[in-house]
Design brief:
By secondary structure, this protein is α+β, with helices and mostly antiparallel strands. The protein has one helix and three strands; from the N terminus they run βββα. The protein has a single domain, classed as Double Stranded RNA Binding Domain. The chain starts with 5 loop residues before the first strand and ends in an 18-residue tail after the last helix.
Length: 68
């Protein structure tokens, strides 16, 4: 089993959007968080089937917010 870090945001239309850190271009959306997580798991599975990824280098360091 592999753990992925996911950024979750809500867009201006109220849809939830996820982006998978360490998998460039791997993102999806859903109308609620349950649908988003289901779609995100599917997006990761499809991404890994289509692209060769070295999962050993997927180290998450930190997440910070900066207010300007």
């Amino acid at each position: 089993m592999v753990t992925f870090n996911v950024i979750v945001e809500q867009d201006e239309d109220g849809m939830f959007v996820s982006e998978v850190i360490g998998l460039p271009g791997c993102h999806t959306q859903g109308e609620n968080l349950d649908e988003l997580m289901k779609n995100t798991k599917e997006a990761i599975s499809l991404y890994l089937k289509c692209k060769k990824v070295d999962l050993g280098d997927n180290k998450f360091f930190a997440f910070q917010q900066i207010e300007i």
